[in-house]
Amino acid sequence: MLSGREAALVAGTLVAAYAFHQSSLLYAQWRRCAYRRSHPMVKDKDHSVTAEEGALDAVSDSKEDESAVPRRIRKAETVLQQRTSRIVLILEASCDIFNQQAVLPECLGVQHVWIVEPAFYKKVKSDRRIARQSTQWISVRRFKTSEACLVALFAQGYEVWATDLSQRSISLQSGTLSVPDRLAIVMGRETDGVSETMLQAATHRVYLPIYGFTDSLNLNVATGLVIFQIFSMCPEARGQMEADERKSLRKEWYQKLVPSQDVLDRYIQSPPSVFQDLRRADDHRNPWIGARLLGRIHRKEEENRSDF
User: Fold this and answer.
1) In a domain, 133, yes or no
2) Domain of 243?
3) What is the largest CA-CA distance in the chain?
4) Adjacency order of strands within the sheet including 110-116
5) Where is the signal peptide (predicted)?
6) Which pLDDT score is estimated for 15?
7) Which of 36, 41, 71, 227 would give a disulfide with 157, using CB separation of 3.0 to 4.6 Å?
8) Which residues contact 112 (CB under 8 A, 6 or more apart)?
9) Among candidate residues 226, 242, 278, the one with its CA nearest the CA of residue 85
């Protein structure tokens, strides 16, 4: 049995620990709110599209007038206007570089992908080439540990949601969740999901219901569906980004697309109007396939029809 003094000491220690924990949470919340106020995310001004400019949407690169803005520049500006920094995707300890390659193009408008490195990657010869191609238009930040990633997230005011299939999770389709001003959505490893560290730090554990015999999906498929659902919950998140970051990305992207410094400066100072529809004209959607292979396909189809 504890003496009265010892019991009081234990109780005091527990109260102090609880008070410290609560004060830490309040301080972290205050820091997030302060960062959000000082770094607002806004949508860029609307770029009106005139009838003449709209007619250029269906013009191929090879037939553009030299005085017109190249299609690739207008496409880059259109994509930039839809990119968001309000939502950050976290890939935690994914060991398969091909899964990462598949996830990155499916970010559906998310600009920032943070990767918590696994203990090892499955070795493939094309690792470097894959990483370079996948991250050309995405901002990727890498961390050695989940703890380091969380510190950076909280410092920038992000609230963490972790994907999880446990009974404690909330369906993203429940209608009870509200997307915060800054959201980090965590996708876990292919084998065992999100780490306990991330789960403990998460404000919510979330999942997408699957009405089938399996209870999980491939990482890239699950990521695409989760991000699509979040944008469905909060469509106004599209295009929300700090103004300075958008300007920086515009310069970075245009430098890859414009050979002349004079032309580059002009486009940066006066960005072109955006496309109303990014799809190409119908005459540009013919299958890109070699004539020899296309002929073989047609001959085989004719043989199948004759056999039938």
Assistant:
1) yes
2) 15-46+77-274
3) 96
4) 139-143, 110-116, 84-92, 183-187, 159-163, 204-207, 170-171
5) none
6) 81
7) 36
8) 85, 88, 89, 138, 139, 140, 141
9) 242
